[in-house]
Amino acid sequence: MKWLVLASLATTLAQAQIQRVAPHADLAKRQAASPSSTSHAAATRTATGAATATRSPAHTGGGGAVPSSPLASLTKIGTATTAEATQPLPTTFAAGATPPVKGAPPLPAINQLNPAHYPPLDRIPPLDSPEVKQWLSEIDLSNIPSVNPTAIGGCANATNAQAIKDGGADGNCWWTCGGCSRASDITYCPNKNDWGASFDDGPSPYTPRLLNLLESQNLKSTFFIVGSRALSRPEMVQAEYMLGHQLSIHTWSHSSLTTLSNEEIVAELGWTKKVIHDITGVSPNTMRPPFGDIDDRVRYIALQMGLRPVIWTQYQDQVFDTRDWQIGGGVVNATGVYNTFNNFLTHAVQNLPNGFIVLAHDLYQQSVDLAVDYILPGVINAGQLKIKTIGACLGESPEQLYIETASNSSSADSDPLLQTTSTFVGATGTGFVPGIALEAQQTSSPASGSSKGKNLEASKSGSSANAQQTGNTSGAMAVKAGGAGGLFAATMLALAYLL
């Protein structure tokens, strides 16, 4: 069955002020400083419970009003962690349990995980392992855009001047310095008032507290998992998966991907995909680059590995990044983050014609406390926004979110699907819908001027761009697709743009 997908081309925003480096060592340092930090050997732990799932008596689900802490108490969330009781997971599962994902294999036994079979935690994986060599042999890098790795420091590093200059849609589309995204990037939810909830960098000792609130309200989120964290806390990854949350890849060491070699990027993504598969039995088909640091070279590799890039929403001058990750460092305070999130809601409800994706984190106590005690209760009690996984907000079923089950999904044979994406002023990226772009015909609004479609190939100087490009934000691309699975479709669509 053929699909029809209407997807727009990305526009280049004004240069973003986001200037972040990739301190994977700092990530490890802050994680280790936690009083509840788990050692590398913790990966050998088994999930508690017997033959069936065991549910915590504190949370029975069912929704309803959620207690919210008074806003005046936001000042209690400071730079230091505070002593608080460790919460158990809302549910734990035994090996062999049946997942909520159609066609997925039984849950693996995590007591079989051996840390010695994985790279060192929080370090870029070595390239001489049989696994990395195998992953490299499975992908084609012959047509990769000739984009040089960037230097650590992003936009603030003067040695990146040329990369910044070439970072627009007609160049290497570097998101970090300019906010450029391609049509293959998932950056927002198609339907108004849908919030594609996402939490990065976990799991951590504080993740169970977040999971308990979500479970008590029958809510689902997307978790972008760092491979090193998954190996340290496999029972948390299993709980997230078995409770119906979406799992996605967030690299092994949380390094800025544009600073790495092609082989290092493959290793970062491959090991994270592998450890999640070893824990759950399935491999996510999405990824989020740490710090949003992605360009056409990184996109190409991710898509070659069957991974769709996911960032977060940008609308006009508003970047939907809570900056909750900066509370612990004293760069921002909890009150400021709370007010920033309220600004997101104002934009979403009053101005944004589509839904949105927000960047938040479950690595730090401060960010989890802010989400559980203030942000989520406020949204839940207001009842205006629909909190969903990013996959659900895109209309995808749970089985479409994993490589092993997406290929068997009946959704690929369902009725044709039409979706309009990124056609409103100020938007970038696309609300992704499964489909395979074999033919593309550009259209544009007559009132906004003629289109400037170009077939652009990666040149020797390293520049690449969309296969079809409009000269305005209201232009759209009509994509006619053949009946294949969503994963292969996404790969072919994006590769068509990048070649």
TrEMBL record:
<comment type="similarity">
    <text>Belongs to the polysaccharide deacetylase family.</text>
</comment>
<keyword id="KW-0378">Hydrolase</keyword>
<keyword id="KW-0119">Carbohydrate metabolism</keyword>
<feature type="region of interest" description="Disordered">
    <location>
        <begin position="83"/>
        <end position="114"/>
    </location>
</feature>
<feature type="region of interest" description="Disordered">
    <location>
        <begin position="443"/>
        <end position="471"/>
    </location>
</feature>
<dbReference type="GO" id="GO:0009272">
    <property type="term" value="P:fungal-type cell wall biogenesis"/>
</dbReference>
<feature type="compositionally biased region" description="Low complexity">
    <location>
        <begin position="32"/>
        <end position="58"/>
    </location>
</feature>
<dbReference type="InterPro" id="IPR002509">
    <property type="entry name" value="NODB_dom"/>
</dbReference>
<keyword id="KW-0732">Signal</keyword>
<keyword id="KW-1003">Cell membrane</keyword>
<protein>
    <recommendedName>
        <fullName>chitin deacetylase</fullName>
        <ecNumber>3.5.1.41</ecNumber>
    </recommendedName>
</protein>
<keyword id="KW-0472">Membrane</keyword>
<feature type="domain" description="NodB homology">
    <location>
        <begin position="193"/>
        <end position="388"/>
    </location>
</feature>
<keyword id="KW-0170">Cobalt</keyword>
<dbReference type="GO" id="GO:0071555">
    <property type="term" value="P:cell wall organization"/>
</dbReference>
<dbReference type="GO" id="GO:0006032">
    <property type="term" value="P:chitin catabolic process"/>
</dbReference>
<keyword id="KW-0624">Polysaccharide degradation</keyword>
<dbReference type="GO" id="GO:0000272">
    <property type="term" value="P:polysaccharide catabolic process"/>
</dbReference>
<dbReference type="Pfam" id="PF01522">
    <property type="entry name" value="Polysacc_deac_1"/>
</dbReference>
<dbReference type="GO" id="GO:0098552">
    <property type="term" value="C:side of membrane"/>
</dbReference>
<dbReference type="InterPro" id="IPR011330">
    <property type="entry name" value="Glyco_hydro/deAcase_b/a-brl"/>
</dbReference>
<dbReference type="GO" id="GO:0046872">
    <property type="term" value="F:metal ion binding"/>
</dbReference>
<keyword id="KW-0134">Cell wall</keyword>
<dbReference type="GO" id="GO:0004099">
    <property type="term" value="F:chitin deacetylase activity"/>
</dbReference>
<feature type="region of interest" description="Disordered">
    <location>
        <begin position="29"/>
        <end position="70"/>
    </location>
</feature>
<feature type="signal peptide">
    <location>
        <begin position="1"/>
        <end position="16"/>
    </location>
</feature>
<keyword id="KW-0961">Cell wall biogenesis/degradation</keyword>
<keyword id="KW-0449">Lipoprotein</keyword>
<dbReference type="InterPro" id="IPR050248">
    <property type="entry name" value="Polysacc_deacetylase_ArnD"/>
</dbReference>
<keyword id="KW-0964">Secreted</keyword>
<keyword id="KW-0479">Metal-binding</keyword>
<dbReference type="GO" id="GO:0005886">
    <property type="term" value="C:plasma membrane"/>
</dbReference>
<keyword id="KW-0146">Chitin degradation</keyword>
<keyword id="KW-0325">Glycoprotein</keyword>
<keyword id="KW-0336">GPI-anchor</keyword>
